[in-house]
Amino acid sequence: MSKKIKLSEEELVLALRNREKIAIEALYDMYSASLYGVIVRIVIDEATSEDVLQETFVKIWHAFSSYSEEKGRLFTWMVNIARNLSIDKLRSKDFKNHSKNQELENNVTSIDEQRNTVYKPELMGIKELVQTLKPEQKSILDLVYFKGYTHVEAADELGIPLGTIKTRLRMAIIELRKYFN
After folding, report:
1. CATH of domain 1-119
2. Torsion from C-alpha of 140, 144, 147, 150, nearest 10 degrees
């Protein structure tokens, strides 16, 4: 078993900017489990989640020039890529057709596997931080970040205007940032 590569965020960003081979290896060693947890929570299907994880790393590698330290942490940027690719996968025609054509036996297996997912935000302390938010912020954060809803879908689900969703979500994120900055 080889030793996992671990770099500081600054070292990793520099290595990614310089397109060094060690950067992608460190990226995978340091973040694959966390990103997979986010993806499998949205996509559910493990095989599809693994494909989305691979797509996520490819997109991170190719789109790294668009990352800016001033706009946020590297992990947050990568989680947004993983989350967006996961949601795109769920909305794709191929995925919807595949889901409709699964046999009943496969669905039973899939449901059993869903109960044993790896991603546990409570172990990362995120659930506790979210509990400190106002109830109206918690419900929106849960729908958008943990269940994969779009802002429009969250507005429909909660029966409140889209602008209110965006404002409350922004306020919740500002509140949570206080714990990380």
Report:
1. 1.10.1740.10
2. 120
